[in-house]
Amino acid sequence: MPNIKSAKKRVLIAQKKTLQNKSINSNLKTVIKKANATLEEGSVENAQAAVRVAVKKIDQAAARGIMHKNAAAHKKSALALKLNALAK
């Protein structure tokens, strides 16, 4: 356990940020699963709406540094490929 006041504060902040990041990651996984489920159903309109929400959440996570920008691009690309295949 740290003895210096600033080190104690950093430990508390790190714990707080870890909880926030876990919450955002959990929400992100849920949104992506919902988008994939909607894509498998076959409804183009619902799939477009779900993918739009998922892409927005992915972009927000990448902008905050919770997810690497290349990982975000990979997930967005995969969703777009599935959506384009469904639209044809």
Strand element count: 0
Q: Kindly report the name of the CATH homologous superfamily.
A: Ribosomal protein S20
As an assembly, this protein is: single chain
Q: What's the architecture, going by CATH?
A: Up-down Bundle
The main β sheet shows up as: none
Structural class: mainly alpha
InterPro entries: Ribosomal_bS20, Ribosomal_bS20_sf
Family: Belongs to the bacterial ribosomal protein bS20 family.
GO molecular function: small ribosomal subunit rRNA binding; structural constituent of ribosome
GO biological process, one term: translation
General description of the model:
Keywords: Ribonucleoprotein, Ribosomal protein, RNA-binding, rRNA-binding. Binds directly to 16S ribosomal RNA. One of its GO terms (biological process) is translation. InterPro entries: Ribosomal_bS20 (IPR002583), Ribosomal_bS20_sf (IPR036510). It comes from Youxingia wuxianensis. The protein has helices at residues 5-41, 44-64, 69-87. Helix 1 (5-41) runs antiparallel to helix 2 and helix 2 (44-64) packs antiparallel against helix 3 (69-87). The protein has 88 residues and is mainly alpha-helical. It has one domain: Ribosomal protein S20 (Methane Monooxygenase Hydroxylase, Chain G, domain 1, Up-down Bundle), CATH 1.20.58.110. 88% of the residues lie in helices and 0% in strands. The N and C termini lie far apart (59 Å).
